[in-house]
Amino acid sequence: QVQLVESGGAWVQAGGSLRLSCVASGGAFDQLSMGWFRQAPGKDRELLARISWSGSGTYYEDVVKGRFAISRDNAQSTVYLQMNNLKPEDTGVYYCNAVAPPGYRYWGQGTQVTVSS
């Protein structure tokens, strides 16, 4: 059973930056594909970015491409989401997601990001 704990959410003005962290425990972190999702008020949870177990492969949705960067430190069992040039529409609860072989999915409890204009 993998446990995920996110941190780093905050209130920030538009144009600002935040870095989210997600620490994993209870599993072999270097076997996990990791991702960040967001759920805006009144909307479905949406994928933002994913990173492969080794960190060599990344994927971004167009809505964050060029502004957000996902990275991981396998020695620290941590995945990060660097968010730059934040916009009010980036407001929401950000969730860390892990996918373990053969396809088990795990979620953190979420961290709130609020971007004011």
Brief overview:
The chain has 117 residues and is mainly β.
Helix count, DSSP H or I runs of 4 or more residues: 0
Helix content: under 10%
- Helix/strand-derived class? mainly beta
Number of strands: 11
Strand content: over 45%
- Summed over residues and divided by their number, the pLDDT gives a mean of 96
Order of helices and strands: EEEEEEEEEEE
- Biggest pleated-sheet summary: 7 strands, mixed
List the uncertain runs: none
Rounded to the nearest angstrom, the radius of gyration is 13 Å
Give the distance, in angstroms, between the N- and C-terminal Cα atoms: 40 Å
Shape: globular
Folded structure, characterized:
This protein is an all-beta fold and 117 residues long. The protein has strands spanning 3-7, 11-13, 18-25, 33-39, 45-51, 58-60, 68-73, 78-83, 92-100, 104-107, 111-116. The chain is built from no helices and 11 strands. Strands 2, 4, 5, 6, 9, 10 and 11 form a 7-stranded mixed β-sheet that branches. It has a 4-stranded antiparallel β-sheet with strand order 1-3-8-7, with no helix packed on it. Strand 7 and strand 8 (78-83) form a beta hairpin. The mean pLDDT is 96.
